[in-house]
Amino acid sequence: MMKRIRQKRGVAAVFCWLLAAQFMGNGVPPGSAQENVLAFAVVMAPPTDKAHIAARVSIENVVEDLVLLPTDQILSNPIWKKLEICHALKLEGHRLKEGFRVTWVRVLDSAMLPMVLQGVAGDCLLKKALEIAPFVD
C-alpha cells in the first residue's frame, strides 16, 4: 500500500515539473513583446498615412488610443488599403512604445466588438454621419 502511494506521489511530482517546464518555455516570460496579443480597434481618424493609423484599441478590456503600425505584409493587404474612419478591426500583434505592431487583421461588424469599444464605435459612426458624410456630395 505504501509503495503505491509513493508511486502516485512520484508521478504527481513529475507531472508538476513537466507543467512548470512548459510554462517556462524558452526562458521568455509570459506577456513578453515576442508574444502575439489579440486586440480590437476602431479607426478614429480618416487615415492619410496607411503606415500609421490612429485608433482606439482594446487589449484585455483596457482601452487606449494607439497608433496601428502594420507589417509590410499587412500594408499590401486589401483590407488595410481600404481602411476608413470608424472601421472595426480584430487584430493580432505586439504592443510597442510607439503603438501596436499589427501582424494579422480582420474587419468586423461593430456589434462584434467587445462592450468597452461598442460605445466608441457608435459615437464614431454618429460623428461620421453628422460631420463627414454631409460634405461628400
Structural class: alpha+beta
| CA distance, first residue to last residue | 86 Å
Strand content: 25-35%
Arithmetic mean of pLDDT: 81
Brief digest:
The protein is 36% helix and 29% strand. With 137 residues, the protein is an alpha+beta fold.
Structure characterization notes:
With 137 residues, the chain is an alpha+beta fold. The chain has a single domain (37-135), classed as OB fold (Dihydrolipoamide Acetyltransferase, E2P). Helices cover 36% and strands 29% of the residues. The protein has 4 helices and 5 strands; from the N terminus they run H-E-E-E-H-H-E-E-H. The protein has helices at residues 2-24, 72-75, 78-81, 115-132; strands at residues 37-43, 53-59, 62-70, 88-95, 100-108. It has a 5-stranded mixed β-barrel with strand order 1-2-3-5-4.
Per-chain topology:
Blueprint: H1 2-24, E1 37-43, E2 53-59, E3 62-70, H2 72-75, H3 78-81, E4 88-95, E5 100-108, H4 115-132
Parallel strand pairs: 3-5
Antiparallel strand pairs: 1-2, 1-4, 2-3, 4-5
Features:
137 residues; alpha+beta; 5-stranded mixed β-barrel; 5 strands
